[in-house]
Amino acid sequence: MNALSRRICLFVSRAVISFVDDTRTVQYLQARINALETVGDIPRYVEYGLSSNPPIGSEALVVFGNGERTNGIVIATSNATFRVTALKSGEVVLHDNTGQKVYLSQAGMVLDGGGKPVTITNTPDILADTPLLKCTGDIIDNYGTNAHSMADMRAHDNAHVHSGVQRGGSNTDPPTTLE
After folding, report:
1. What domains appear along the chain, each with residue ranges and CATH number?
2. 150: which residues sit within 8 A by CB, 6+ positions away?
3. Does the global pTM surpass 0.85?
4. I need a labelling partner for 42 at 20 to 30 A (CA). Which of 63, 75, 93, 124 fits?
5. Would you tell me how many other CB atoms lie within 10 Å of the CB of residue 72?
6. pLDDT, tens digit, for every residue of 109-144?
């Protein structure tokens, strides 16, 4: 095999990630290309606005400029263990290795916390421009100073009665405790 053919063969390689350094301005990886070849300090470039730290054991696609193993760049990573499958054409999922997902499905957007809390921070307002907002659990407003859920307050209000209050018109009954 001549030198040019060898460089072409060495231009792109699949590798398995063995170490991630996510402390610098560009993320750097160490990756095992085969049983005899491990390459370190390979920069990993990703699209603007997206950041991730691939789990050890994930696969990487490494491009080596001029086919020289000292000049690599990671252009893609993947981990089949955690990949979300059975997406329909055009659907997108942002996910991690713990089950958290933001799913842009054909039927609508789904936020799955993977059994963990979802925290919204550093925003002055949350606008829900929707005709119906549904919640299967309790809601507590003024959380820092209020210990009662809206269901607690509604139950308290429903049990509220007045004695000695003059009865209203003929179509009005006196307040009573609701069951």
Report:
1. 3-78 (2.40.50)
2. 138, 139, 140, 141
3. no
4. 93
5. 24
6. 999 999 999 999 999 999 899 999 899 999 998 888
